[in-house]
Design a protein that fits this description.
There is one protein chain. This protein is α/β, with parallel strands linked by helices. The chain has four domains: 145 residues, Alpha-D-Glucose-1,6-Bisphosphate, subunit A, domain 3 (Alpha-D-Glucose-1,6-Bisphosphate, Chain A, domain 3, 3-Layer(aba) Sandwich); 98 residues, Alpha-D-Glucose-1,6-Bisphosphate, subunit A, domain 3 (Alpha-D-Glucose-1,6-Bisphosphate, Chain A, domain 3, 3-Layer(aba) Sandwich); 89 residues, Alpha-D-Glucose-1,6-Bisphosphate, subunit A, domain 3 (Alpha-D-Glucose-1,6-Bisphosphate, Chain A, domain 3); 85 residues, 2-Layer Sandwich (TATA-Binding Protein), CATH 3.30.310.50. The longest helix is centred in the first third of the chain and has 17 residues. Strand 19 and strand 20 form a beta hairpin. The radius of gyration is 22 Å and the shape is globular. Strands 1, 2, 3, 4, 5, 6 and 7 form a seven-stranded mixed sheet that branches. Helices cover 33% and strands 21% of the residues.
């Protein structure tokens, strides 16, 4: 019976600290477990890619060995953005691929995002990989699998440029935060006719300038400064593996992804009236009315890229988005989350205007907070913490309490949310309201609930 750190098997990916919870041996065993699942589904070939993290090459070598020893062929696409790995999986391997990435986690983290036969592995499927490892449920192929290589970027680029058409050339800033998107963003956007100022687009797994996480306003300050001091019109920023998009106006206003989704939904619905639009539980309460107003059907879903993809398939949705910056297009694309491509779609929309920032600033807006994190005590299970808090939680004046992912409490003039992160040991809070007074009142109610657990500390 093999042993492996159980806590690296998360809700929608595998992620851990390199050399501690995520070792080379763990990567090898995970490769064997994925291969056994693939073989059971009749899958013979898996695409394999990695982001720019320093631990990527070794982990790639070991998970690849797990595949080939089990009789699975590997298509090694090298260092790519996560959406490029998904693209390779769909185009070359029947929808099967594994991306080695730590996304926006600190430099000493890494992990795996996995899809087999077009389905993203999540939840129970990831726990089944753990069970396969702990019970030595592996397979041996009749012959060892082969390894071949391919540069997928030219095909990815050609596919995008073939259908994304800007109405006019644009001047943009692209900030990759030294993540892997930097290797491709400049070439991609120039191919669309943009003049691109690149910030931190040299790939460096130490992330020496700022962390590649556009969900945090502090990581967008370089884009904001560049826009103010240049003639660029709009700013794009990417996370460490290129599947999330940050967006900044000329004046330095951050357009959070739930408001980005308003524009994407309006665009898609103009061609597909009645289509479903999926968004996660963290999104603005102004989104659902906007979708209805533009002829669509809003669907709220739990947070997590794999949950969103699953819901898109179930609902036949054409576009979806998460507050964290993952945006998914099924219309004209493949349905996976792709920050680079979302940037292309955004520029296509904005290029129809002489003043892109005015278009973005005109989107409906409430007073809101970014994500607020509460660190959990060592060894705590965030979902259990939320369950315990929910048993005694009381919210005066609540119009609705939504429990699809934590507690989202709707009031007449705003909402509050607390949920457990699926990737890090924190509780995530978010608040939105019509006025500062309302947001303060809602926060005070959540503060009372949080502080009913003496181990938790209110962060504001």
């Amino acid at each position: 019976m093999a042993t492996i750190a159980r806590d690296i098997f998360k809700a929608y990916d595998i992620r851990g600290i390199v050399g501690k919870t995520l070792t080379n041996e763990a990567a090898y065993l995970i490769g064997k477990a994925i291969a056994a699942r693939a073989a059971a589904q009749g899958i013979k070939k898996i695409a394999l890619g990695r982001d720019g993290r320093l631990s990527g090459p070794e982990l790639m070598e070991n998970i690849s060995r797990g595949f080939t020893e089990s009789g699975i062929d590997v298509l090694n696409v090298g260092m790519v953005a996560t959406p490029m790995l998904y693209f390779a999986a769909i185009q070359e391997c029947g929808g099967s691929g594994v991306m080695i990435t730590g996304s926006h986690n600190p430099p000493d983290y890494n992990g795996f995002k996995m899809m087999l036969g077009g389905d993203t592995l999540a939840g129970e499927a990831i726990q089944e990989l753990l069970a396969a490892i702990e019970n030595d449920r592996f397979v041996s192929g009749a012959a060892a699998g082969s390894v071949s290589g391919k540069d997928i970027f030219p095909q990815y680029l050609e596919t995008i440029v073939g259908h994304i058409k800007l109405k006019r050339p644009m001047k943009i800033v692209a900030d990759a935060g030294n993540g892997v998107a930097g290797a491709f963003a400049g070439t991609l956007y120039r191919a669309l006719g943009c003049e691109v100022t690149e910030l931190f687009c040299d790939v460096d797994g130490n992330f020496p300038n700022h962390h590649p996480d556009p969900a945090k306003p502090k990581n967008l300050q370089d884009v904001i400064n560049e826009l103010k001091n240049s003639d660029a019109e709009i700013g794009l920023a990417f996370d460490g593996d290129g599947d999330r998009l940050g967006l900044v106006t000329k004046e330095g206003n951050i357009i959070y992804p739930d408001r980005q989704l308003m524009l994407f939904a309006q665009d898609v619905l103009s061609r597909n009236p009645g289509a479903k639009v999926i968004f996660d539980v963290k999104s603005t309460r102004l989104l659902a009315p906007w979708i209805r107003e533009h002829g669509g059907e809003p669907v709220m879903e739990k947070t997590g890229h794999s949950f969103i993809k699953s819901s898109m398939k179930k609902n036949g949705a054409l576009v979806a988005g998460e507050m964290s910056g993952h945006t998914f297009f099924k219309e004209r694309w493949f349905g996976f989350d792709d920050g680079l491509y979302a940037g292309c779609r955004m520029l296509e929309i904005l290029s129809a205007s002489d003043n892109p920032s005015a278009v973005l600033n005109a989107l409906p807006q409430s007073i809101s907070t970014p994500e607020i994190n509460i660190d959990l005590p060592e060894g705590s299970n965030g979902h259990q913490v939320i369950e315990e808090l929910a048993k005694t939680a009381k919210f005066d004046g609540a119009a609705e309490i939504i429990t699809i992912d934590g507690l989202r409490v709707e009031f007449a003039d705003g909402f509050g949310l607390m949920r457990a992160s699926n990737t890090t040991p924190v509780l995530v809070l978010r608040f939105e309201a019509d006025s500062e007074e309302a947001i303060g009142r809602i926060q005070n109610q959540f503060k009372a609930v949080i502080e009913s657990n003496p181990a938790l500390h209110w962060p504001l």
